[in-house]
Amino acid sequence: MHAALFYRPGDRLSLSELSAARLDGHVIEVGEGYMPVDTVEGRDARATSIADLVTPRLAACGRTAAWIHGAGDQPPAVHHVRRVSASRFRSQRSFRVVFHERRLPPEEVMQIAGIAVATPLSAAVEMLFQSVIEHADDRWLRALLLADPGLGCRALAHVEQLPRRPGRRLGLNLLAEIISAQDVVTR
């Protein structure tokens, strides 16, 4: 998606002008900005919308990466990022962004519209372990697995190959449950 098709409040148009254009049906709201109604909202549009929140040394992960990859209609209330640089640094404090210190390996990062984003498999595995260890909500995981039908089987194979890890058995059970529910729906 070309940057000229994405409008951030305060850049070329004020928030009130963009809100009026939205009410008139000329633009739609996507994440942190707006884009023309006739433009397809894809991964690149969603990634572009959070470009101000994800600095070059960070990558969108977890729920944010799931949303970029097509899970859900609305972005998460709080975005999640992880560092991709080898060196540690002090993160900017923000109520809109949760910074995870653990580094995201280069093989688990992909570039979408110039923004570093965790791969769908990496995001799914991260959310899987969050849901079983931290008892977090698994709606984003389920939505991501629905958006990419083959991802559940790939995640299951990936988790089976992991060495001993807390929550591994519970994660495998949850994935098997989600995959079996998907099979019934997609027949």
TrEMBL record:
Q: Can you say what this protein is called?
A: AbiEi antitoxin C-terminal domain-containing protein
Identify the species of origin: Microbacterium esteraromaticum
